[in-house]
Q: What sequence folds into this?
């Protein structure tokens, strides 16, 4: 995480120090939400609830939404722009109850599972006046 921050800072400082007056730097800070339709993690949660978790008092809830922070920077010089973004979305689900383990007495458990989706992207843009278009390449971890 610190390497990415340092890379963005060095990139912005080096590019802004070499180019003169005709450029623009935008900083992006925001809050994002996601509502995944077919989320494979929910199959794992359902299998847990129907298997080991049958006797739980409070079963795990399916993950219906993710939300979190979005950060980014755009550097525009004349008709060209470069956009760098980072997004971290997360959610959690917890359960409480007694679980039977073969050959042992009932065990009381309380647990919380966290899920996180982190996205990194780099985009190139081309502008015509105030309008532009471009392409972005991203890397996502779940």
A:
């Amino acid at each position: 995480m610190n390497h990415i921050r340092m890379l963005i800072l060095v990139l912005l400082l080096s590019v802004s120090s070499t180019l003169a007056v005709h450029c623009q730097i935008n900083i992006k800070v925001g809050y994002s939400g996601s509502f995944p339709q077919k989320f494979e993690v929910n199959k794992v949660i359902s299998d847990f609830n129907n298997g080991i978790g049958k006797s739980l008092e409070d079963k795990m809830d399916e993950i219906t939404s993710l939300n979190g922070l979005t950060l980014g920077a755009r550097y525009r010089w004349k008709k060209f722009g470069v956009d760098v973004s980072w997004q971290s979305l997360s959610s959690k689900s917890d359960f409480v109850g007694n679980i039977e383990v073969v050959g042992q007495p009932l065990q009381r458990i309380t647990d919380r599972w966290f899920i996180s989706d982190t996205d990194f992207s780099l985009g190139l843009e081309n502008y015509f006046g105030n309008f532009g278009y471009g392409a972005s390449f991203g890397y996502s971890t779940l």
The mean pLDDT is 83. Strands lie at 23-34, 56-58, 66-77, 80-99, 107-128, 131-141. Residues 2-18 form the longest helix (17 residues). The longest strand covers residues 107-128.
